[in-house]
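dude i think i finally got it to work??
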Amino acid sequence: MLKATKVLLPILIALVVLGAIGAWDRLSTGKLSLNFGSYIPWGIWVGLYIYLVGLSGGAFLIVFLHHALGIRALRRASVYALLVALTTLGAGLVLVLADLGHMDRFWRLYTFANPRSILAWMVWIYTVYALVLLAMLYAIAKEKQGWLKPLSVVGFLLVITFGGGEGALFGVLGSKAAWSSGVQPIRFLFSAFLSGAGIVAFTTVAFRRWQADQEHHGQVEFLRYLVLGFLALNLLVEFAEFTVTSYSSTPAIVEAYDLMLFGSYWWLFWLVQIGIGLVLPIVLLVPPCDGKPANLGIAGLFIALGLAGTKQNFVYLGLAVPDFRALPDAFVHPRLSTVYFPSLTEWLFAIGVVAAAALVFLIAIEKLPFVEGRRAPPVRPASARLEPLREGGGA
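look at this
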């Protein structure tokens, strides 16, 4: 067992237990212990849902690059990426399930779905995507190499669909000026690819089960350029979105940006999004710090953390600006507020779900026989082992 795994296992198990306390409170008291209400109906769970599902799609990009496009440098990383995609998808869907008012009715999304609803289509796409991930895991375990390329192509098409669909869910809401934008599908896709590449870079460095050979160094170099490329693309999209929408001087957008830059969550933007998610990764990935694989892993982790904060900011800012200015003062009630901070139950459950996903990933790379470094060396038949002796004896 890896040293990092030995250290993390008891910590993750403890966090899962704390998450179980939050889950029990959610199941026993409903939404009484949750801090979101009528004006802020979505909280930390929805922010983590769109982040984790996007991260799953971004990790699957690595799988697609190896199995469909034949990039050999990602052979080892593609296995880790597949496991990341599966665990983060499950975690994201569990979080959004907990956010539902009636969790026991989720099956109605399959039986009574509105064919014109984007959300209904997303549920079906998530389901097919999960089946593709499981099929690829089975194909790798049974060494059915012929399955992997077509499955990776289908999976990537689904990633493009639900990755852009997530952005469309927010972009089509014309009543929310901070969300309503045609660039949201592209924005969500690029941020998903960046977070996925970052977390795969982190896991392949921090939990490496293979020798630091030439293939490993080639993988590190490829991932470094991939992460830098997606960082540049995300910067371009964010700059375009910010400059164009702020130039329009729409009051709701100006108020949302003012809240993001100087409001109560200023630290989430300046410290988490900009500092941890952007500045530190760039410093670690460009000369003179770019030569160490450890720097790539740390940069990948920082990117993942920064983008998690980005999604929280995105969800909150779209809801924090009231539809009309007098709304917060029209009625006074704890559930009728445009100020939100997660409750203890929300924190416990969110941390527990993320810890459970990490725990499943660590157990998988330790126990699954097809993970690189766990395969037993091939046993040569006795006749093959004696062949050199026979040749030597004949000489």
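DSSP finds 14 helices and no strands in the chain.
im so relieved honestly
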